[in-house]
TrEMBL record:
Annotated protein name in UniProt: MFS transporter
Gene3D superfamilies, alphabetized: MFS general substrate transporter like domains
Xref: PROSITE patterns: MFS
SUPFAM superfamilies, A to Z: MFS general substrate transporter (SSF103473)
Keyword check for Chaperone: no
Membrane disposition: Multi-pass membrane protein
Pfam families: MFS_1_like
Amino acid sequence: MTHWRLSNLYFWFFALLGGMLPYWSLYLDGRGFSYLQIASLMATIQLTKIVAPSVWGYLGDRTGQRVRLVRFGTITGSLCFAGVFLEPGFTGLLLVMLAFTFFWNAVLPLYEVITLQVLGSQRNQYGKIRLWGSVGFIAAVALIGVLLEWVDIRYLPMLLIPLFAGIAVSAWMLPVEKIVRIQKSPRGSLKAILTHPAVIAFFVMNFLLQVAHGSYYTFFSIHLQLHDYGKLAIGLLWSLGVIAEIVLFMVMHRLGARFSVRNIVLAALLLSLLRWLLIAEMASVLPVLIFAQLLHAASYGALHAVSVQYIQGFFGRHHHGQGQALYSGLTFGAGGALGAWGAGFLVDGIDTSAAFLGSAVVTALAFAAAWRGLRPPPPPPELERGRGQI
């Protein structure tokens, strides 16, 4: 029962992401916004991750009231999103998206800590719980893709309402009784963690990885639409990437037992680079595009699964919330926002293919950073005292 209650919020949270991510840029394009405006509006989804997770992660670590903060974030974020129905112009919609995502982006980092804390010694079950988020994403992408074949794209916000409701309800079903408050962490140890060379390499690698994903999250749907793919086909291709991610989560423990973490990261980055090149140059060839989408298992699935383990090892239990917030803010937030804007300039000045070629270049830089500095983390107590050797 506890595992089902944990999986439930993952399902609805990522279902909302699945309802927005493939189609929101098409919705903005349908409303007549320019490519640079679309890039700026899509960047807000990532931009608030720079601040929001750190703020909410700090509050969660200090108060221990992570469940209440998750509930507050889901309800308030939903209310802020309602401003979309006023159909404001660019500036108004930008403010609505900033307000909505400030609360929405607080939910997942807090929830990751809640899940791992509830699981306790059963943390190896994390992948089985998290994969329900992928299932929710696929279900929403497919269902909304079908609906958008029948209704105009301008009705997309209305189609998202049931998903917001699902998140709100599931947030009130969390197993509160199993959440305990973590005592205040040792003073000064967070600085020692953040200045560790391997930690710096970890964040640089992930930052560049998310810069590379900026073109994907912002312009992949538009790129496919320009290659004459319909909305349902676009949705199915997005879903295919997430299916590959699910399979990866299910076998990740086997890969971890057979290969070193460093080798998994380096191989995943090389496959990510290949993915962006194929999308840039061969998107019109469906079998090649399908293969490229299957590589989402590497570019997101493998690297995220490894990164969750790194955060645990680097930051320990005292700084876990802040570590998760920094991972979300510095990589998905700053990296994702910069990647979206950079892609916007490339698309506006050249074309969508140029944006994905840019992603390949940035991924090569991420590979170089990982090759040079990434090492496995030592046991958490050593890093918490600032004396860990990698």
